Amino acid sequence: MIDIVCQPTGRTHIDDIQTSERVILPWQHRHCFTACQTSKLRCDWGYWIIRQTLTEIMLRLCLPRLFVALACVASLGSSQSTYLEQWSKRINCGAKRFTDTLGNVWQDDDFFTGGDGYTVEAEIPNTLEQELYLASRNWGKGEDDPKYTFRFQPAGQYKIVLHFAALCTCAQSAGNRVFDIKINGETVAHEFDPIAFVGWRMALRIEFSLTIDTAQSIVIEFPRIRSQSYVNGIEVLLQDKFPTTTTTTTTTTTTTTTT
User: Fold this and answer.
1) What is the pLDDT of residue 171?
2) CA–CA dist 62, 66 (Å, integer)
3) How far apart are CA 177 and CA 241, in angstroms?
4) Contacts of 137 (CB under 8 A, 6+ apart)
5) How far is residue 214's CA from residue 64's CA, in Å, rounded to a whole number?
6) Which residues is 135 bridged to in the sheet?
7) According to the model, what pLDDT value does residue 87 have?
8) Residue 198's CB: how many other CB atoms inside 10 A?
9) Which element (helix H / strand E) includes 255?
10) Measured at the alpha carbon of residue 9, what is the angle toward residues 8 and 13, in degrees to the nearest 5?
11) In what helix (H) or strand (E) does residue 158 lie, and over which residues does it extend?
């Protein structure tokens, strides 16, 4: 069987065809296919038409739609990423805006109630993010509402990351500064003592998960138990804008920062 493809070529007549060769016939000589019968060559013209028609349908109809679909998927992915980043916040507690080693931008200290900013000139040996851990917001005696309030956050699944490093030389031992951590009214850490975990002037990073099913504020509180409460950095990171459960908070990890 000869595989016939119709396109411009130098061939002008069916008699030039050898039985064993693959030929390209000019479209204007398609009438020559009738000569195949006398030359005992099998030319399945009907099959060729069907194959060519299906190919054209695929190219003209399906392929453009495929490109549009791929473009839409890429656009949705980019839009989703932009939305999540837009509603995520990183706060450099007690200090100013900076960009960390991963390229993340941390805002000036904001959204807090009460407390005082505190900074030192030192080195935190177990982290590369010195600017984050060399400042904190502290709440002392008489301050009964130590918190950060992130208003009008959209429904979704969040990762809450809190950063701690005890800086004051007046409290270098475990047990000196102990406090609770609450997220939207639920206690997620009781009698929390960062120094007991990692020691004085060492970085500590803890994570919590939070799911809210309606747009609302996210409130992170640090009620004092002994002496002062403090926090060095807060990340409120929107992970997914399509929540599937009701509001909950659960501790996910507790890790020291070593990068």
Assistant:
1) 92
2) 6
3) 36
4) 93, 94, 109, 112, 115, 116, 117, 118, 230, 231
5) 39
6) 119
7) 92
8) 18
9) strand 248-256
10) 110
11) strand 156-164
Rounded distance between C-alpha atoms, residue 88 and residue 239, angstroms:
9
* Structure token digits, residue 252: 């996910």
Minimum mean pLDDT among 7-11, 81-85, 254-258: which range? Answer: 7-11
Query: What CA–CA distances, in Å, run from 210 to 23, 73, 111, 223, 248?
Result: 68, 28, 19, 19, 6
d(CA 241, CA 158): 9
* pLDDT for res 15: 45
Q: What is the pTM of this model?
A: 0.68
Q: How far apart are the first and last CA of the chain?
A: 69
- H helix count then E strand count, the chain: 5, 18
Residue 59 DSSP label? I
Q: Are 241 and 183 in contact (CB under 8 A)?
A: no
Q: Which DSSP letter does residue 197 get?
A: H
Strand (E) or helix (H) holding 219 = strand 216-221
